[in-house]
Structures are given as C-alpha cells and as structure tokens.
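job 3f2a | input accepted
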Amino acid sequence: MNTTTHRQLSPTPRDAAIARSSGQVLAHYARRQRPLTLRVRDHRQEKPIELPAGAVKLLLGVLEAMADGRGVTVIPEGAELTTVQAAEVLNVSRPFLIKLLEENAIPHRKVGKHRRVRMEDVIAYKEAIDREREQVLDQLTRDAQEQGLGYRVP
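job 3f2a | predicted structure (154 res):
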C-alpha cells in the first residue's frame, strides 16, 4: 500500500498571496463540480491537463489553507502511519500515542516490532475526542450560567 504523504510547510507571504489569488479564480470553477482542463505553461511549452472534479476541490482546499498561511499535509485514504506520523496528526507526543495504542484507544497493527495506525482510525479518534471536549465545555458553560457566573446564552 502506498502511504506517500505530501507536505507543504507554512507558505511564504508571496506564496500565500499567489494561493489567495489562484484560489479565488479556481473557486468559481470548483462550484461546478466537473472536471477542469488547465493549461500548464513553462518557458518552452504549453500543455493542457485535465483534473477530475475531486482533485479540483482538493486543490482549492490546499490553496485556501496556504492563503491563510497554514501548511498542508495530504495523506491518501487507507494510508498506514508510523507512530511518529500519527502523533503529529494528533499533535501529541509519541509516548502518549503509544500509551493510547496499548490501551486500545486507537486500533493498530504490528509490523515486526513497529506499530502501524490507519489514518482513518487516527481521524476517528481525533473526532471523538473533539466531540467529547465540546460536550464538556458545553456542560461547563451551562453550569456557569446556572450559578450566575456571568456567562449568558447568546
């Protein structure tokens, strides 16, 4: 299985500006949800390429992130991550991730002595934790409102 990831670190201000203007143009075409033919040009030649609708949408998302000054990592579905990669996705330390794996909080498999984690499982864990945090924050807000601690419902 190909687990190649593609990473673009935080863009330079110039790259962010290019991404912003390119994204604005591409957004018009991405709404159509159809394949798009682009002309790629360098100093010697010009060649048309066709992008599937899904790739256009993905490219637009990449450009929007870059325009906001954020780096981007593209990981294919079905990819298996190393523990270092999975920890980076979750923004936790590798030892903390290993603890989660040993507690079976995230499914994994062993390849020799090394653990592999499916990207889908990492994302599912992250979404579950985010939902749980949101519920706790909602409850804290309700408790503060009930106790008259200055929190108001908008």
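job 3f2a | The two ends are 49 Å apart (CA to CA).
job 3f2a | closed
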